[in-house]
Structure formats: structure tokens, C-alpha cells
Amino acid sequence: MRLTVDSWKCQSHLQCIAVAPELFEYDDEHSYTVAITGEVPVRLERAARDAVAQCPEHAIELEE
User: pTM to 2 decimals?
Assistant: First the structure.
């Protein structure tokens, strides 16, 4: 399972970071959120799904 954030859709509401701070970080230089690279750890899969659901811009994709 991998997360990606569409930087064009992201409006920096930071809901993903509030829900799953272990999986996302804010890119100050470009003013949007980025997801961790690599596989989402099994213990954080629910948090990843919650972050996708909470994004008001639907900018986060979860690839299983």
C-alpha cells in the first residue's frame, strides 16, 4: 500500500497530517503536503485510509 498526494489538488488544509502525522509532512517551500515514500506500514493502514477520507480536496490516493 502506497500513498500519493496530488500537489495540484492539495490546498494545504492539513487534515491528513492531523489524522496521520506519521504518514505526511508539509513542504514549506512548495506549500503543500507530501506523503511518505515507500510502503505504508501495516500498523498505519487504517490511518492512511482515514487520511484519504478526510481530505476535502480528494488529493490523496491510496494504491493497494
Answer: 0.89
Domain boundaries, the chain: 2-63
**DSSP 8-state code for residue 48:** H
Pairing of strands 60-63, 24-27: unpaired
Pick the CATH number of 2-63 from 3.40.50.720, 3.40.50.261, 3.40.50.2000, 3.30.70.20: 3.30.70.20
pLDDT in tens, 13-61: 999 999 999 999 999 998 899 998 889 999 999 999 999 999 999 999 9
Contact present, 46 and 53 (Cβ < 8 Å): no
